[in-house]
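ok so for the tutorial part 2 we go from a plain amino acid sequence to predicted structure tokens. step 1 is just haveing the sequence, like this:
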Amino acid sequence: MTYYYNSYDQTAPIRFAAQLTSLLSDHMEPCHSPVLLCIGTDRSTGDCLGPLIGYKLSGYIEKHPITLYGTLSSPVHAGNLDDTLHIIKEKHPHAPVIAIDASLGTSSHIGYVTLGSGSIRPGLGLKKELPEAGDICITGIVNFSGKLNHLCLQTTRLSTVMQLADCISFGIISALIYRERVLLPQ
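step 2 — the prediction. this is what the tokens look like for a chain of 186 residues:
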């Protein structure tokens, strides 16, 4: 099942965090921490959602036992996704992977966050053949899908990407804090 959250709704980050907490409980053993895989490139406004979220989460991650791949300074993109997935499998064989990426959708869903169990297919909107990634998937719908998807990603409004990044980052941090303080008491 896929859940949709309008990032412009003030309650969306809290509802998103609650559902993410539930999905983490379904996918994680108490002794494991998740791996965050933020997919995208900093060279395209629409596709920078993943690295931007990675950048926003990097300060939080420094103080907590969570692994993060994909930031603005070190993005995970089509050219290195396969290698990164092999590294994750080797270094974190039992950790659930939360894959985060930008996506294209209908014009009425621009600005929505999607959350669900299972993997995502990065590059699908651009007809790229990339490996599936993640046990839990999060996408931000940054623009509409059409005949010129590559151009849509290039001309995506930065304000939409920032709104999505703020909502998703807040939701992830909230879910991780809840899990750390309530579900895994010291």
